[in-house]
Design goal:
The protein has 315 residues and is mostly helical. The chain is built from ten helices and no strands. The N and C termini lie far apart (189 Å).
Length: 315
């Protein structure tokens, strides 16, 4: 450009060739310097551009790397979050499954406990029933033992361990049976003998009376035996004797009780009225009924004695 200016100036002005030639080296130096500078500048610019490009590329790479790192970090975070959610979901499922299993086990344990309690209660009831049955059995056994003791006491208290002396009737029957053949019908003989005894007079019956000494000896033995009885046996004996007695009041009731109740009178009313009438009787009147009762009892005892004699003879 500088040479162009010099050429133009030489053409339009009177610049000598000497001046032009003198200035030419300077201009060439300047041009060379300029060229160098331009080249250096261009190179520098190129370098700067290249450096800028490199910087940009590096920045882009760095940015890309940073973006990639951030994306990777974000992806890792998302993955970690997803993993955490997944693990949380798995934990929740495991917890629910565990709770379900525990609930089933608890329900099973409750059922087993209830069943065990039911079995224990059933066993207790069974044992209680068994003990109750055993208790009832022991009570029954004790009652039976008491009954057996009472039966033996009644048996011992009912009659002494020795026989009563013979009466006129038993003496008559024994003498009659002694003269009979063993092959005859003893029952028929006893019946006929009883009829004969009933038809005999009191004087005839006295022939068969027993020696009074036997009666006295019997009473001595009887009183001695009676003294050995316990209070319980005595009570039982009195009770047994009372069963066979005929009371004067019973005779009065039997003779005076109406055969037919009239006027709306009940059995209780009639019994109450007769009781009041009996209590109003005098002692002499009551004594008459007592005599009748004794006579009935004597007849009953005699009939019983005859039956026992016939039974013993038949045996």
């Amino acid at each position: 450009m500088l040479f162009t200016v010099l050429r133009i100036s030489r053409a339009h002005s009177a610049i000598s060739n000497a001046a032009f030639s003198h200035a030419r080296p300077t201009v060439s130096s300047l041009v060379a310097t300029r060229s160098f500078l331009t080249t250096a500048w261009v190179e520098a610019a190129k370098k700067d551009a290249k450096s800028t490009k490199t910087t940009r590329a590096t920045a882009k790479k760095v940015k890309s790397k940073v973006s990639g790192s951030k994306a990777a970090e974000k992806s890792e975070k998302e993955k970690a979050l997803a993993k955490t959610k997944k693990e949380s979901g798995l934990k929740e499922k495991v917890a629910k499954a565990t709770e379900k299993v525990l609930t089933k086990e608890k329900a099973k344990a409750r059922r087993e406990k209830a069943l065990a309690i039911k079995k224990a209660n059933a066993l207790k009831l069974k044992e209680k029933a068994k003990l109750q049955r055993e208790k009832v059995r022991l009570i029954r056994q004790k009652v039976n033992e008491e009954k057996e003791k009472e039966r033996l006491a009644i048996k011992n208290a009912r009659r002494p361990p020795f026989k009563k002396p013979k009466t006129a009737y038993t003496n008559f029957m024994s003498q009659t049976m002694n003269g009979q053949d063993l092959g005859t019908d003893r029952t028929e003989i006893l019946k006929q003998s009883a009829k004969v005894w009933s038809s005999m007079s009191e004087e005839e019956k006295t022939k068969y009376a027993v020696d009074p000494k036997e009666r006295v000896e019997y009473l001595v033995k009887y009183n001695a035996w009676k003294a050995t009885l316990t209070p319980k046996e005595r009570r039982i004996r009195r009770k047994n004797n009372a069963r066979g007695t005929i009371q004067a009041y019973n005779v009065f009731m039997k003779e005076n009780f109406p055969k037919k109740l009239e006027g709306g009178m009940t059995f209780i009313d009639a019994s109450r009225t007769l009781r009041e009438r009996y209590l109003a009787l005098s002692e002499d009147e009551k004594a008459e009924y007592r005599k009748k009762a004794d006579a009935i009892l004597a007849a009953r005892n005699e009939a019983k004695e005859q039956a026992n004699t016939q039974k013993a003879a038949a045996a």
